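dumping this here so i dont lose it
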């Protein structure tokens, strides 16, 4: 393969991911032998890559000299060995969004004060659980939740999730704030009432929280600066209030990774610099809640081709996995990089559509992508699926079986 082809078809090659002696290796493991051993579909995660991703975040934030905390968003991947690895790495706390996630974090040994909770549409039972865990940090995103937590936990310190009305993500489907009204966060016009209710129950607002979407990339960094300008309005409101003494800015998660050959990796120093320039003069600590950034490119899904068939204008390649294991293309149109476990022996590429085994038209992993000629029985790796894959798995059509391996 020449350099141009490599840049186009194997842009995802890294020190720990690429072909060795004609077989795809990940973190030192031959994935074809693992596929034979494990049976497919199987997710394979690299602890070395997870550690590298977290350490990169630490370096960028530490270099700003602004105090910071990293909470891993458990929703991205809760494979127990992986979460235990994170616990013993000491590199992060946990961002939880449900009672189940709080309990799981506690079960693997995270202390209450290493857990930050930001949920939505909270039931009284959810708030009861938070009452039983007084050391867990809570960010609330509705006036209703402030009132009902206040009734249970008079005098508790809290965070408020605000809606800065600017979103950014891999694409507009993954923006959590923006022009369209979303369910997330407290809007400007609600904020005075939110503070008044906090005051009524003796709650002190110490954190302002926002989360603008999933997968913002280098080109979105100007938006992060714009969001901070919006945050400033909320911060100003707080300074005048007795019930608010904001010490922390929680900027949520959403950091993206390259998904295609043309995506530029996020410049973390630049991103951290934007946050620090805002936080430093205001004496704020920064919290971040990355999920996907930590695990996405640390996970691959191994699958086997069972069908290769031309149907009218499309060459379909059917595999033994479906959108129940990874729905980011089906639901959000995200592109997946897909490659055979045996290195292609030709530079010839065919345009193929990778189809899952679930009886839904949207069950596709990739549409009209160039891949080397494939035969039934071949194995494929779907890359960048460490986040929101197994964690979102469903048994749609009773096709939910899979295994997971932690390297
Ligand atoms: C409040 C909050 N924090 C963090 C995250 C993690 O986002 P990501 O995995 O894109 O980093 C999410 C994702 O939905 C979220 O809603």
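and the seq i came up w/
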């Amino acid at each position: 393969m020449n350099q141009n082809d490599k840049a186009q078809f194997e842009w995802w090659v890294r020190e720990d991911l690429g072909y060795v002696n004609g077989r795809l290796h990940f973190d030192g493991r031959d994935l074809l032998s693992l596929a034979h051993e494990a049976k497919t579909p199987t997710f394979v995660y690299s602890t070395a890559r997870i550690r590298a991703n977290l350490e990169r975040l630490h370096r960028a934030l530490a270099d700003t000299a602004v105090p910071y905390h990293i909470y891993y968003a458990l929703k991205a991947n809760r494979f127990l060995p992986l979460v235990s690895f994170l616990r013993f790495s000491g590199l992060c706390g946990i961002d939880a969004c449900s009672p189940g996630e709080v309990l799981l974090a506690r079960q693997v040994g995270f202390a209450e004060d290493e857990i930050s909770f930001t949920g939505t549409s909270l039931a009284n039972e959810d708030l009861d659980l938070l009452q039983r865990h007084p050391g867990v940090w809570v960010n609330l995103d509705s006036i209703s939740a402030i009132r009902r937590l206040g009734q249970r936990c008079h005098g508790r310190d809290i965070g408020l999730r605000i809606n800065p009305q600017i979103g950014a993500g891999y694409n507009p489907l993954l923006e959590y704030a923006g022009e369209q009204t979303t369910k997330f966060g407290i809007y400007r016009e609600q904020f005075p009432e939110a503070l008044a209710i906090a005051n009524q129950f003796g709650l002190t607002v110490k954190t302002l929280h926002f989360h603008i979407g999933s997968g913002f990339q280098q080109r979105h960094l100007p938006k992060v600066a714009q969001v901070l300008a919006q945050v400033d309005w909320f911060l100003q409101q707080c300074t005048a209030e007795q019930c608010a003494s904001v010490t922390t800015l929680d900027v949520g998660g959403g950091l993206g990774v390259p998904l295609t050959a043309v995506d530029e990796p996020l410049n973390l120093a630049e991103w951290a610099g934007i946050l620090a320039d805002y936080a430093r003069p205001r004496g704020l600590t920064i919290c971040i809640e990355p999920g996907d950034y930590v695990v996405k490119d640390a996970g691959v899904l191994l699958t086997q081709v069972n069908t290769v068939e031309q149907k009218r204008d499309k060459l379909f390649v059917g595999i033994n996995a479906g959108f129940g294991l990874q729905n980011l293309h089906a639901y959000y149109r995200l592109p997946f990089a897909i490659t055979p476990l045996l290195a292609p022996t030709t530079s010839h590429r065919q345009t193929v559509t990778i189809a899952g085994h679930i009886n839904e038209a949207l069950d596709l992993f990739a549409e009209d992508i160039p891949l080397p000629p494939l035969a039934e029985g071949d194995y494929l790796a779907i890359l960048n699926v460490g986040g929101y894959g197994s964690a979102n798995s469903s048994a749609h059509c009773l096709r939910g079986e899979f295994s997971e391996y932690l390297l």
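The first strand starts at residue 17 and ends at 20.
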